[in-house]
Design a protein that fits this description.
Layout: H1 2-17, H2 33-40, H3 45-51, E1 54-66, E2 70-76, E3 81-87, H4 93-99, E4 107-116, E5 122-133, H5 149-154, H6 156-162, H7 164-186, E6 190-191, E7 197-198, E8 210-213, E9 218-222, H8 227-235, E10 240-248, E11 260-269, H9 273-291, E12 296-299, E13 302-305, E14 311-314, H10 315-323, H11 327-330, H12 333-343, H13 353-364, E15 373-376, E16 398-403, E17 406-413, H14 418-433, H15 444-451, E18 457-463, H16 464-472
Parallel strand pairs: 3-5, 6-10, 14-15
Antiparallel strand pairs: 1-2, 1-4, 2-3, 4-5, 7-9, 8-9, 10-11, 11-18, 12-13, 15-16, 16-17, 17-18
The protein binds one RNA strand of 76 nucleotides through residues 1, 3-4, 7-8, 63, 65-72, 74, 83, 85, 87-89, 103-104, 117-119, 121, 123, 137-151, 162, 204-207, 249-252, 254-257, 261, 348, 400, 406-408, 410, 438, 461, 463, 466, 486-487, 489.
RNA sequence: GGCCCCUUAGCUCAAUUGGCAGAGCAAUUGACUCUUAAUCAAUAGGUUGAUGGUUCGAUUCCAUCAGGGGUCACCA
């Protein structure tokens, strides 16, 4: 507000009248609050007095309790809170004057000795005060914190200052990504970065964002998946590769979708989809060990056991089971069409057979897959990049991992037959003509790479944001992305 | 994009079929040298998201718009 801004501006002016620099350049802390707390919390008041340990530290003022000639404040260093105590007789006249110009939200440094109050709270008795930065706006309320979701996401820094749980979520996100990365490095994978701007969008069924390169005067597409580039690396003989990076899909926003999101994709030559289901279980086990000692997550009102091995069900069989249509009828486009029209007349009829099967899966199966479950053997018609099944020509060696009703991972034995791949792309083009505007385009440069010969390989993508949701219990993807996309205001 | 809900002080929230817009925290002034949601006294702070309409009178009822949340669709 204008008035509070003015008041604080006045205080800043008074600082320079005292000869205090409003924006100094640096400050030396001897310890972070966490270290101070860890080192001294078990010492008695007497022991601390004896030790007379002098330290310096810095933080943002979250609360001030002033009693005229003395004051307590709580500082926050972004991680922990620590109380400081300022007494008139213990500081210089200038520092005591400075103390009266401080506002909640200001950042200060202090030098002093560690002690415990009568209520046994570890605190710093201040000997020297250093002004570090002014806050011109009042902070959100200390007791209720910042509740308004819109403000929390638009002004995430305020959320981080007042709501400690938020910091915990992003610390956990960082740990999770670090663990995933270590998992693949430990197994000899090379981490790579492939283009974010693609001349031809590909690798997933999704609508892309379009951008433009001025010097070349060409349109480019923000990538929907790195898949087709990573497979070029397999052709090049990179035996084990992975990439953790952003993908962009021009689609709606929901509890589980943000237009830009983080995926890891990983590939390994001479492996198939069975190997990768096993590897996925190993990866989650490794994450459990570090982030989930109990092995169980609390998801809304349910508990989910994250311990492998996970259940495995076949795509067509699980739809058959839930819909009452026999597996053989499910392979009949006419039967499937009739079933949808009869039981779901409100649903617009999908343009292709594959989309109809996906619709039935969404309606009957997806939301019920709470416990970790691999859905396997997806039909060829909806898996244009997967290798055909050894058991049934109509199916592919593909799996998706579902947890808490969310798709977490998608992997398969990679199709490496360039002639077959070209046929699949052409089939996609026909789907596009029938109205499926997410059907993939022919990428001739990718096909050319395959024509040089790609060894058999397995590949997989895992949605990092959703994984973080699971491991933090966050109900919305916005809670695990620092700056989720919102409509710009004003 | 469809449907439902929300928007009141910097923050968290009240306001009686439609009858003077309030509290706590934050802020200002003063008191106070172990407080911790500090306390005590006083003060200030509002175009009730925006624009129209109904009405003697609208935070309240209606319409449109904006932003957000939820849900469905799109989408992994």
């Amino acid at each position: 507000m204008e008035e509070q801004f003015g008041v604080r501006l006045e205080k800043l002016k008074k600082l320079s009248e005292l000869g205090i620099s409003a924006y100094p350049y640096r400050f030396d802390s001897t310890m972070r609050f966490a270290e101070i707390i860890a080192k001294f919390k078990d010492h008695s008041a007497d022991e601390l007095k004896q030790a007379n340990e002098e330290i310096s530290c810095a933080g943002r003022i979250l609360a001030i309790r002033s009693m005229g000639k003395s004051a307590f404040m709580h500082l926050f260093d972004g991680e922990d809170k620590l109380q400081i105590y300022i007494r008139k007789e213990m500081v210089s006249e200038k520092d005591f004057a400075l103390n009266h110009l401080l506002d909640i939200g200001d950042i200060i440094g202090v030098k002093g000795t560690v002690f415990k109050t009568h209520t046994q709270e570890l605190s710093i008795l201040v000997g020297e005060l250093t002004f570090l930065s002014k806050s011109f706006h009042p902070l959100p309320e200390k007791w209720h914190g910042l509740q308004d979701k819109e403000l929390r996401f638009r002004q995430r820094y305020l959320d981080l200052i007042v709501n400690p749980e938020t910091k915990q979520i992003f610390r956990k996100r960082s740990q999770l990504i670090q663990r995933v990365r270590a998992f693949f490095h430990d197994r000899g994978y090379i981490e790579v970065e492939t283009p974010m701007m693609h001349p031809i969008p590909g690798g997933a069924a999704a609508r892309p964002f379009v951008t433009h390169h001025n010097a070349l005067n060409i349109d480019l597409f923000l990538r929907v998946a790195p898949e087709l580039y990573l497979k070029r690396l397999l052709v090049g003989g990179m035996e084990k590769v992975f990439e953790i990076n952003r993908n962009f899909r021009n689609e709606g926003i929901s509890l589980m979708h943000n237009p830009e999101f983080t995926m890891i994709e990983f590939y390994e030559l001479y492996r198939d989809f069975n190997d990768y289901m096993n590897l996925t279980e190993e990866l989650l086990l490794s994450l459990n060990r570090e982030l989930l000692p109990a092995g169980v997550i609390q998801w809304q009102d349910k508990k989910i056991d994250m311990a492998p091995p996970f259940k495995r069900v076949k795509f067509m069989e699980v739809i058959a089971e839930k819909s009452g249509l026999s597996p053989e009828r499910l392979w009949d486009e006419g039967q499937v069409k009739g079933h949808i029209q009869k039981h779901f007349p409100e649903e617009p009829l999908p343009p292709t057979f594959g989309k109809m099967l996906e619709l039935l899966f969404d309606l009957y199966v997806e939301k019920n897959l709470i416990e970790p479950t691999f859905v396997t053997y997806y039909p060829k018609v909806i898996s244009p990049l997967s290798k055909a099944s050894r058991l049934d020509e109509r199916e592919t060696e593909r799996f998706e991992l579902y947890i808490a009703g969310m798709e977490i991972a998608n992997g398969f034995s990679e199709l490496n037959d360039p002639l077959e791949q070209r046929k699949r792309f052409e089939e996609q083009l026909r789907n596009r003509e029938r109205g499926d505007d997410e059907a993939q385009l022919i990428d001739n440069h990718f096909l050319q790479a395959l024509e040089y010969g790609m060894a058999p390989a397995a590949g997989e993508g895992i949605g990092i944001d959703r994984l973080v949701m699971l491991y933090t219990g966050a109900a919305s993807i916005k809670e695990v992305i620092l700056f989720p996309l919102l409509r710009p205001k004003e």
